[in-house]
Specification:
alpha+beta, two-stranded antiparallel sheet, 2 helices, binds iron/sulfur cluster
Length: about 80
């Protein structure tokens, strides 16, 4: 499942560099996540690095965009 950024985002840029898949989009007024490339950091980290980096806890699971099955199989 991809993650998404909520409106509480303060566009602080803390999540941008740590993302291993370059899925963070520095948009205005708030950042966004490319749900087509976000992997929940599977294979890179035990937990989403963007969530750990975010100072306002505004990054959550994007229920509307479950990650595709093939990627789950490869873990
Ligand atoms: S969960 Fe991982 S891959 Fe997805 S946007 Fe956050 S840092 Fe990037
Ligand atoms: S770390 Fe959080 S507040 Fe900062 S840009 Fe990313 S989502 Fe927005």
């Amino acid at each position: 499942m991809a993650l998404k950024i909520l409106e509480a985002c303060i566009a602080c840029d803390a999540c941008f560099q740590p993302c291993p898949t370059d899925s963070i989009i520095p948009d205005d007024p708030i950042y966004r996540i490319n749900f087509e490339t976000c992997t929940e950091c599977k294979g890179y980290a035990d937990a989403p690095t963007c969530v750990e980096a975010c100072p306002v806890d505004c990054i959550v699971l994007d229920e509307a965009h479950p990650y595709h099955e093939s990627e789950k199989e490869h873990g």
